Amino acid sequence: MAGLPQQVMSGFRLDLGPLKEPLGFIRVLEWVFSIFSFATTGGYTGSTDFTVHCSPKEGELVTASFGYPFRLSGSGFNYPNCTAPGYSVKMHLQNDYSSSAEFFVCVGVFGFLYCTATLVLYLGFQHVYRETTRGPVIDLFLTAAFAFLWLVSSSAWAKGLTDVKAMTNPQTIVNNINLCVKDKCSPDRFPAMGRLNASVISGFLNLILWGSNCWFIYKETPFHKPDHASAAVTDETGPQ
């Protein structure tokens, strides 16, 4: 077992040539956008504001903060008690959208790890990757699986983000608070969602990248190569 790391390192042959080919170049793009997808979603925090008017002349700004994984029902805020000045009522946003957000981040993290592993294989062990048909075939099926996961997770997160936007809209919050009667509450600042919009876009961009990369990996598999081999044999055995 002690000699295994030495055997691995002895087989390592750094070759940056694959980065000039679509197979390696697209994998680098997948690596970058996988990081971007889970980082923009997983690190998000935001807030939404509305104003409570306990008296016609004075208003108190209420801020409701939330963030990943978007379990909004756990995001609380203090609503001023207009009937008892100086006191407040603890309230929460509504609904839980953590499943779609966590699924999307999970796909991004595993996509990043797979890209890292395959880039090491492409750049350091290209001779091992190409010497048997098993490597390209496994790579093809896993890449196709990730393309499908990006489709499902991006679609789910796009729907989840739409719902998050609706439930964190200050007008929606005001409408859902029973104490906001007789124009005592007014919506204020809408939460900044540009970062989350970018995460959804990057998710569908990952779908395109992983899906298109299947073709270039397919060309390395025996599913594609026999066509060229049979054509060569036909030329050699054709009429003299």
UniProtKB/TrEMBL annotation:
Membrane topology: Multi-pass membrane protein
Glycoprotein keyword on record: yes
Name of this protein: MARVEL domain-containing protein
Source organism (scientific name): Conger conger
Keyword field: Glycoprotein, Membrane, Transmembrane, Transmembrane helix
PANTHER family given in the database record: SYNAPTOPHYSIN (PTHR10306), SYNAPTOPHYSIN-LIKE PROTEIN 1 (PTHR10306:SF9)
Annotated family: Belongs to the synaptophysin/synaptobrevin family.
Domain MARVEL, first and last residues per copy: 18-222
PROSITE patterns xref list: MARVEL (PS51225)
Transmembrane segment boundaries: 101-125, 137-158, 196-218
Compartments, record wording: Membrane
Keyword Membrane belongs to the record: yes
GO CC, any one term: synaptic vesicle membrane
